[in-house]
Structure formats: C-alpha cells, structure tokens
Design goal:
This protein is 77% helix and 0% strand.
Length: 274
Amino acid sequence: MLGWASYPTTRRARKGWSMTEKINTYRTTATVVGLVFVAGMVIGVGGNILNLSILGAPDPLSNVAANSMLVAVAAFAWLLTVVGDAAHGVLMFPILKQQHSERIAIGYLAARIVDAVFIAVMVLFILLQIPLASEYLKAGASDASFLQALSTMFVQMNLYAYHIAMFTLGIAGLLLCYVFYKAKLVPRLVAVWGLIGYAIIFGGSALEVLGFNLQTIHAIPGGLWELFIGVWLIVKGFNPSAFAPESATPDDGGRTGVRQPTAASQQGGGNSLR
C-alpha cells in the first residue's frame, strides 16, 4: 500500500504521462491538419483550373454538355475541400481553446463552417450548368439565348460565392495565425507570413465582391503559406514547448508552482500521517 509520502510522486508521474499523451495527440492533429492543408490546395487549384477551362470557353454550355463528366468531377473535388474546411475548424478547436481562448476557438470554427457552406453553394452553381447545358442542346434559337444568359448568371453567382468564402477564410486565417504567433505553435516568422497572406486574401476578396477584378492574385501569398504550413506541420508538427505546463516544484502536491509543507513539518516532528 502506498504511503502518503509517495503520493505526490505517483501523481506527478500520472500527470507527466498525461502530458506525453496530449503532446502525442497534438502531433497527430498537426499531421492531419497539415495533410488537409496540402490536399485542399492541390484539389482546389486542380478543380479551379478544370472549371475555368470548361466554363471559360466561347460557348460554355456546349462545352459543358460535351464534358459533363469532367464538370461533375471538378465539382466533386471542390466538395472534398468543403469537408476539409469544416475539418480544420473541428481539429483546431481544442488547441486554440487551450492556447488562447474559447472565443477564438469558436470564432475560427464558425468562420471555417461559413467558408465551407459558401464553397458548397459555389459547387451547386457549377452542377446546375450540367442540366442547363442539356436543355441548351435541345432548345431553339430564342430559348438558347435565355439559357446562355442564365448560365452567365450562374457563373457570376459561382464567383460571388467563391469570393465570400475566401473573405471568410481570410477571417479564419487571421484568427489562426494570431494564435500561432501568440502561443508560438510555429515559428513567429511563419505566423507573420500567414497574417499578411490572410489579410491580403481578406481585403482582396472584399474588393472582388465590390466588382474589382484582381484575377485572384490576392490569393497567392496566403495560398503559398497554406502549402508551406501544411508541409511544416506534417514534418515538424506544432512546437512541443507550447504545450508544456508551468514549472512546478518537486513537492507541490499537485498544485502548480506552490510548495506544500511536508507531512513531518505538519506534525511538528517525525510522526507520519495515517
């Protein structure tokens, strides 16, 4: 049976093991988040290039009708990014909550979910082009003009949904990189890069919604950061020292940084507690 004197040591051992488990969990989270970052960039860019090559043709509806399977594949690729965006918020919630505040964690989760919703709306407008193209092939001259106008409107709505999603992504990224910087989860220079990149995405997307055509140039710094941080988290993970507890004295009795009197001193002599 363990004596009283051995209890603090046993408790500290359990706490040390618990901290090791937490760090291992955070390392796994970092790897998954990094993979989602990289996969999101590759899938998003690939899907965007595929969409532009089809919908940007001189006669987009005829092109969609001839490549409906490719349009569906591109839309499905974007749906995977919807899952990834929501996953970011869920995976990072406990880390952001611990490292800064619950408000920041909730804000990041909410922004990521809104981002995912608008990407899903964007995908819907892409998929609507497929039945529209099918009707276009069967329509007469007068109906064809109407369908072309409707297709153009869907393309514009698609762009609006995309830019609103990127605007929300900018907010989410600023929250994330702020905590990265304050808690030193990654090198501060990397966090500053992210802050700048997401601030440009935030401002550029707002200008796009207002009618300024920036040709998505504003997304380049933040996009490169997401690719870099994805690889960084896969290879190195979060900084382990960011999760280390405050130092405690050897006989703190489980209360961080506060020395507790020994059993002997409490009894005024060498008698032990029973």
